[in-house]
Amino acid sequence: MPPHSSHYLQLLDVSCFGPLKQAYGRQTEDLIRAHINHVSKLEFLCAFREAFFASMMEKGIQGGFTVAGLVPYDAESVLSKLDIRLRTLIPPNSWPCTP
Questions:
Q1: Residue 98 has pLDDT above 60, yes or no
Q2: Which of 12, 42, 52, 64 makes the best surface tag, with the fewest CB within 10 Å?
Q3: Domain count of the chain?
């Protein structure tokens, strides 16, 4: 995998978990505004549930497959975003000798 390319290739990070993280962050901010500084398990589950249902939508998940170039299959859509430089490796037997 080319360096700095995982965010293009991990479609669930782009289409599901990124929006979930943002939605949960908004829920947490609401708790802080309500002067709730310690989040109990119940408060966590309530906030997570709201964030989950606000962010996990069929259209967004399908969009992740499109952005990743999987549906419809289009490898060029991802490859065109990468800065790939081909390098020729120097065989070890041709290295300059050091005295």
A1: no
A2: 42
A3: 1
